[in-house]
Amino acid sequence: MRLHPLSVVLAVAVDGVLAGITGALFAVPLVLAARSFLTDPSTDARLRHAVTPRRTCAVGHTG
Q1: Which domain range does residue 25 map to?
Q2: What is the pTM of this model?
Q3: How many domains does the chain have?
Q4: d(CA 36, CA 49)
Q5: Residue 11 contacts residue 26 (beta carbons within 8 Å)
Q6: Cβ of 31: how many Cβ atoms within 10 Å?
Q7: More confident residue, 2 or 43
Q8: 14 is a domain residue
Q9: DSSP code string of 4-53
Q10: Could you tell me if residue 25 is inside a domain?
Q11: Long-range contact pairs involving 2-7 (C-beta distance under 8 Å, separation at least 24)
C-alpha cells in the first residue's frame, strides 16, 4: 500500500513528538493500519451488519 510522502513525514513528526523515538518508529505502520481499516470495503459491511437492529416481536401480541 502506498502513502503520500507528506503523510509519512507528518506521521513521523507527530508520533515522534508524542511518543519519542518509539512513536517515530511505529508511525508509518500505524498509519498504514488505520488507512487499511478505514478504506477496506468489508469493514463497512461488517460495521453495517453489526448495528442492524434485529427483528423484534411485540410483547403481548397474540397473533
Answers
A1: 5-51
A2: 0.59
A3: 1
A4: 19
A5: no
A6: 19
A7: 2
A8: yes
A9: -HHHHHHHHHHHHHHHHHHHHHHHHHHHHHHHHHHH-HHHHHHHHHHTPP
A10: yes
A11: 3/28, 3/31, 3/32, 3/35, 7/31
Which amino acid is present at 25? Answer: L
Grid cell locating 62: 397474540
Q: What confidence score (pLDDT) does residue 40 get?
A: 75
Give the three cell numbers for residue 29.
505502520
Task: Give the pLDDT of residue 61.
Answer: 58
- Quick: pLDDT tens for 3-61: 899 999 999 999 999 999 999 999 999 999 999 888 877 766 666 666 656 666 666 65
Cell of 22: 518509539
| Amino acid at site 5 | P
Q: Is 22 exposed, middle or buried (0-12, 13-18, 19+ CB in 10 A)?
A: exposed
